[in-house]
Write a structure and sequence with these properties.
alpha+beta, 9 helices
Length: about 180
């Protein structure tokens, strides 16, 4: 996972100063998708309409997907509207797939539980974590590093250890921030 963190940090180092100065929070993930990778982010009502979308069992949904041929990231509009931190994480997650898992023109589809498991406030604290494929775990680590760079997490934690303040500064869900703090502090 250290190599994945290095890859995400390398992306941040290459972000032009007019997009992000390396200090300002939250990290402008949508601007990075556009300016650094030419990826258009779309909020879409029904991701099952995407070319090649898988059939999902009842009760499951897609959080996001990467369409390399179109140069687009599609984000579940309902989730994005209800939960902006989830939207940010989904975009970072799909950028991770773009950087690490793109296979020609094949689309990458991400179910809700594999983008940022156990963070949906609707699911409750007792929600069971689904089995997450390794490429999804890698994209999670990439997104966490992109949105919550270790250096900035340490800096902000030293300034203010109030958990809710950290979540707001980074535009992060609590579970994602908790995992990131555990990883870097």
């Amino acid at each position: 996972m250290e190599e994945i963190e290095r890859q995400a940090e390398a992306v941040l180092e290459r972000v032009p100063a007019y997009v992000w100065d390396g200090e300002r929070l939250p990290v402008p993930v949508e601007d990075i998708a556009d300016s650094c990778f030419g990826l258009l982010v779309r909020d879409v009502d029904d991701l099952s309409q995407a070319p090649g979308a898988p059939q999902l069992p009842p009760g499951q949904s897609l959080s996001g997907l990467l369409l390399p041929d179109l140069g687009e990231i599609w984000v579940n509009a309902d989730e994005a509207g209800r939960w902006p931190p989830r939207r940010r994480f989904t975009i970072g997650h799909e950028i991770g797939h773009w950087c690490m898992h793109r296979n020609g023109s094949e689309a990458v589809f991400c179910r809700s539980g594999t983008v940022e498991p156990e963070t949906d406030p609707q699911a409750g604290a007792d929600a069971a974590a689904p089995s997450v494929p390794s490429i999804e775990q890698e994209a999670q680590v990439f997104a966490a590093t992109l949105l919550m760079p270790a250096r900035l997490v340490r800096r902000e934690y030293a300034r203010d250890r109030e958990f809710d303040h950290l979540c707001r500064r980074f535009g992060s869900a609590g579970a994602a921030m908790g995992r990131r703090l555990h990883a870097v502090i």
